[in-house]
Amino acid sequence: MTETVINKAKTVRLVVFDVDGVLTNGSLILGDKGDEYKVFHVHDGLGLVMLREAGLEIAVISARSSPIVAERMATLGIDYVYQGQSDKQTAITELMQKTGVNREETAYVGDDLIDLPAMNQAGLAIAVANAQPLVLQRADWVTEKAGGQGAVREVCEMILKAQGLLETAYQRYLPG
Questions:
Q1: What's the DSSP call for residue 106?
Q2: Domain count within the chain
Q3: Does 175 fall in a domain?
Q4: Per-residue pLDDT averaged across 142-146, rounded?
Q5: Is the Cβ–Cβ distance between 60 and 16 less than 8 Å?
Q6: Is residue 141 within a helix (H) or strand (E), and if so which, with residue range?
Q7: Which residues pair with 57 in a beta bridge?
Q8: Which domain holds residue 14?
Q9: Is residue 150 part of a domain?
Q10: What pLDDT, in 10s, does the model give residues 75-102?
């Protein structure tokens, strides 16, 4: 990780995540009656909780709409859930205005071409390891883990570490 990425991460107050391919592995599991299923990694969930408990704002922006996403985000205490957003640039701009943060205080995590406009709006653009090649090229930082396989936890811990908050976040879970 470069010093530039660390310095950008130090100022982040809002972290925005794509859903399919970032919080999930990108697979869409469809039942014979049209039911949709998604798989979320439990380590990613705890990373989001640690980030939220450290006082950072968290949001998701997804081009798809799914009650499963709304339910999972509610369980994790994520207040900003933007679904059905094919124009992610407009969505992230509105989100920054709503939360009162500027570009330099915003990080965006994506994996596919539809994420590039939002990544461009963020001060810290992050791609998951298995993102599309153009997304990887445009990212300030790329995770080691793939989307849906712990990449989100990796992002959360990187930002917390850059801000000197990771050890405090760990303390809640350490005995005595």
A1: E
A2: 1
A3: no
A4: 98
A5: yes
A6: strand 141-142
A7: 14
A8: 3-166
A9: yes
A10: 999 999 999 999 999 999 999 999 999 9
> Tokens in use for 146?
């793939």
Place of tokens 């959360």: 156
Kindly state the percentage of the chain with pLDDT values over 70: 100
Non-local CB neighbours of 97 within 8 Å, separated by 6+ positions: none
Would you say residue 176 has pLDDT above 80? no
Q: Does residue 172 fall inside a structural domain?
A: no
For residue 31, what is the domain's CATH number? Answer: 3.40.50.1000
111 residue type, one letter: D
Mean pLDDT along residues 57-83: 96
Place of tokens 């299923």: 37
pLDDT, position 30: 87
Within a domain: 41: yes
Q: With H, G, I as helix, E, B as strand and everything else as coil, classify residue 89.
A: helix
Beta carbons of 129 and 144 less than 8 angstroms apart: yes
Q: Could you give the CA distance from residue 121 to residue 105 in angstroms, rounded to a whole number?
A: 11
